[in-house]
Design a protein that fits this description.
This protein is mainly alpha-helical and about 350 residues long. It is about 50% helix and about 10% strand.
C-alpha cells in the first residue's frame, strides 16, 4: 500500500514494506514529476525490489539535500550564525565527497567520527561540539522532510569541554587603561566594570542608559538579541558613569553608545594589538571574565554574580566559584556551641 501526499509544498510518498511504514520525499513541488517517481516506486514495490532497509531515493543525494538545507537556512537562520554554519556545511560536504558518500542514508556514526578526528584535528573541543550539533540538526531535517527514517547520530556524544578562562589582574587592567587610546580606553573601562558582552556593548543604545539612575539595560531589538534572550539591568559605578557622560557630551544626537565612533571589529583588533604590545595575553572577552573573577574574589555571592552577568543557568557562573573566599569557614565560625 502506497500513497502520495503534499506537505508544506513538497510531495511525499508513504509506503509499507514488511509491516513497517516508510515516508520519503520526492524532492519536488511538481505534482506531475512526483507522480512519475511515485509510479516508479509502486513498480519496485510490486517487483519486491524495496527491502525493509531501503530508505534512499534520488532525492536523498548529499548534493540535493544539502542544497535544500542551505536554502532553508538562508531563509530561517539568524545572520549572526548563517555564514559560519554554511562554511561548516561546505567543509563537511567536501569530506563526504572525498569519502565517496553520495547519499544521506550512507552517513554513519563512524564516518562522522572520522570527520571529527581527521578534518577537525587540532580544533578546540567547542568547535567540534558546534560541528556535531550542526550535523545532527541537518540530519534531523532529513527525518522531518522524509528523506531519512531516523537520525544515525542519535546517541553520538560531543567531546567534553573543560571550561577554562583567563582574567587580568588589577595591575594589568590599570596598565591597559593607561596605555589605551580612545575609543579603546572607554570600551575597556565600560566592559571591565559592567561585565557586558562585546555584542551587548556595541549594540547598546542611549535610550537604554539611565545616567541619573546609575544603570543601563540590555534589551533585545529586531537587529540584536542578547545571549539568553532575556533583558537585564546592569548597575553603573563611578568610572563607567564618568566614561559614559564624556561620550554623551561628545555626541548628544547619537543613537548608539559606540557605533558612531567605531566598529566592534576595529576595537577588537586595536585591543589585541595593545595587549601584545604590553607583553600580556588575553582578549576583549577576558574583560568580562575579569569583572566576574574580581567580584568573586571580593566575596560577591554566586547568585548575584549570575544576575549581573546575565547567565540563564547558575552552572555557567559556577566556573568562578573557586575564586570565592572561604565563606563556608566564615559561616560555621559564627556558631559558638560549646
Amino acid at each position: 500500500m502506497a500513497s502520495l501526499y503534499n506537505r508544506s509544498g513538497i510531495w511525499y510518498i508513504s509506503y509499507s514494506v514488511g509491516g513497517r511504514r516508510f515516508r520519503i520525499s520526492t524532492g519536488t513541488q511538481d505534482k506531475k514529476l512526483a507522480q512519475i517517481r511515485f509510479d516508479d516506486l509502486k513498480v519496485k514495490l510490486f517487483k519486491g525490489e524495496l527491502g525493509v532497509h531501503h530508505v534512499a531515493t534520488s532525492s536523498s543525494s548529499i548534493a540535493d539535500f544539502f542544497k535544500r538545507f542551505t536554502e532553508y537556512a538562508k531563509g530561517n537562520y539568524s545572520n549572526k550564525y548563517l555564514q559560519s554554519d554554511l562554511s561548516r556545511i561546505h567543509t563537511l560536504q567536501e569530506f563526504l565527497a572525498r569519502k565517496g558518500v553520495k547519499h544521506l542514508h550512507a552517513i554513519t556514526p563512524g564516518i562522522i567520527e572520522e570527520f571529527m578526528t581527521v578534518v577537525l584535528e587540532g580544533r578546540k573541543p567547542k568547535t567540534k561540539k558546534n560541528y556535531l550539533a550542526l550535523i545532527k540538526t541537518i540530519l534531523n531535517y532529513g527525518v522531518k522532510w522524509g528523506v531519512l527514517e531516523k537520525n544515525p547520530l542519535v546517541g553520538v556524544k560531543a567531546p567534553k569541554i573543560v571550561k577554562t578562562f583567563h582574567f587580568f589582574s588589577q595591575k594589568e587592567v590599570a596598565k591597559l587603561i593607561e596605555n589605551a587610546k580612545e575609543p579603546v580606553r572607554t570600551a575597556i573601562i565600560i566592559l571591565v566594570n559592567t561585565g557586558l558582552r562585546r555584542d551587548e556593548l556595541f549594540n547598546l543604545r542611549w535610550r537604554d542608559v539611565d545616567l541619573a539612575a546609575k544603570k543601563l539595560r540590555v534589551w533585545p531589538y529586531e537587529s540584536f538579541v542578547p545571549k539568553g534572550k532575556r533583558p537585564r539591568s546592569v548597575p553603573l559605578n563611578k568610572p563607567v558613569l564618568r566614561a559614559l557622560r564624556k561620550l554623551r557630551a561628545e555626541d548628544k544626537k547619537a543613537e548608539y553608545v559606540f557605533r558612531p565612533y567605531t566598529s566592534m571589529y576595529s576595537i577588537y583588533e586595536k585591543f589585541s594589538n595593545l595587549v601584545k604590545s604590553l607583553g600580556m595575553k588575553g582578549t576583549l572577552h577576558d574583560l568580562r571574565h575579569t569583572f566576574a573573577s574580581h567580584l568573586a574574589m571580593a566575596g560577591v555571592p554566586i547568585p548575584v554574580l549570575k544576575d549581573l552577568l546575565g547567565h540563564s543557568d547558575i552552572s555557567t557562573t559556577m566556573i568562578y566559584a573557586h575564586l570565592s573566599p572561604n565563606v563556608h569557614q566564615a559561616a560555621v565560625d559564627k556558631l559558638v556551641f560549646d
